Amino acid sequence: MSIWWSLHLRREAASVPLARRFLLGAMETAGVDPDISFDLSVALGEACANAVEHGGDHRGQGEQRVGRDPWDVWDELPGTASGEYRVTAYLDGEKCRIEVTDSGPGFPARRTLRTSTPQHEPQQYPPLGAENGRGLCLIEQLADHVHFGNRPGRGAVVSFDKILKWRKGALLMAS
Asked: Which parts of 82-128 fold into alpha helices (H)?
């Protein structure tokens, strides 16, 4: 048996713990090992935080926004495509895949090719004193496979997979 769910969330800080709690509840109900669930929920929290911070269309919807900071997400109208993002999770047998998509400017070109699969070039991590930039690295460490990509003209997508471990008598595995 497999399950999937999708949430459409507003780009607000309060949506991040909501998405994490939803994932943790679904995984607990399905019978996923708590350590695996925790790793996935932390990775999901980082992906959601990035969507909240960077995931909006800051071009002003084709009009000049006089007197407003173009990077201020609070100036966006609720319900616009740039004011929301989507989380989709798939639990299928031994694997969980999570995707977070937004309508922002996307990743810089060098980031779109980065995955957690082994590479010949050393990975670049943020400096130790940096106040941000660790979220994507954390996702890479917590998941088995990660893809950061752009949807041309439509935003960014972060998808990551993890092999699941199940508790004894798990509901999802019993079917």
From this structure: 109-112
pTM of the model: 0.76
> Average pLDDT in the 2-13 region?
93
Residue 155 and residue 106: Cα distance in Å, rounded? 5
Q: What is the pLDDT of residues 97-150, one digit of tens each?
A: 999 999 888 887 654 444 445 554 545 655 556 556 678 899 999 999 999 999
| Whether the Cβ atoms of residue 112 and residue 150 lie closer than 8 Å to each other | yes
CA–CA separation, 166 and 36 (whole Å): 9
Q: Which residues pair with 12 in a beta bridge?
A: none
50 contacts 134 by C-beta, under 8 angstroms: no
Q: Which helix (H) or strand (E) element contains residue 174?
A: helix 171-174
Return the structure tokens found at 108.
Answer: 């810089």
Neighbours of 37 (CB within 10 A): 23
Helices 34-54 & 135-142 angle (0-180, nearest 10): 150
